[in-house]
Design brief:
The protein is 39% helix and 3% strand. With 128 residues, the protein is mostly helical. It has one domain (9-124). Strands 1-2 form a two-stranded antiparallel ribbon. β1 and β2 (54-55) form a beta hairpin. The protein is globular. The two termini are 13 Å apart.
Length: 128
């Protein structure tokens, strides 16, 4: 799974919640998720493989189900980097969940916005 930079976690979370709850929005999202999500995330530019073929980044949507658990196996390089830097880790949660950081949203004041943020963070968040 490519790491995508999220431009608007609140907007992304609101979009995901709407797609999950509304059949029409879900169908439109599933039809072309890469274009739909380009409003909220940076889509990597096209690149060439070893043979000169163009590779376009795409996003696939898998609908969750209570009967199947999906696991995304991380890239070896990500696991190796995390293991090499394990002594440097000084916190469990990303900075944006800590009060006083630019993206921190007080859920007691803005519960809906905080929920949207969490959904937006969840969509493309990965442990680093």
């Amino acid at each position: 799974m490519a790491k995508l930079r999220v431009l608007d976690k609140v907007g992304l979370g609101e979009f995901i919640i709407n797609a999950a709850q509304d059949e029409k929005a879900r169908a439109e999202f599933k039809k072309d998720p890469t274009t739909a999500l380009s409003k909220f995330v940076v889509i990597p530019p096209d690149r060439k493989d070893d043979k000169g073929n163009t590779i376009k980044h795409s996003i696939a949507v898998i609908e969750d189900t209570q009967d199947i658990t999906y696991i995304v196996l991380p890239w070896k390089v990500d696991v190796d980097r995390a293991m090499d830097r394990i002594e440097e880790q000084n916190g469990i949660y990303p900075l944006e969940y800590r009060p006083g950081t630019p993206e921190y949203i007080d859920d007691s004041l803005f519960p809906k916005k905080a929920l949207f943020f969490r959904f937006g963070e969840y969509m493309f968040g990965r442990c680093r």
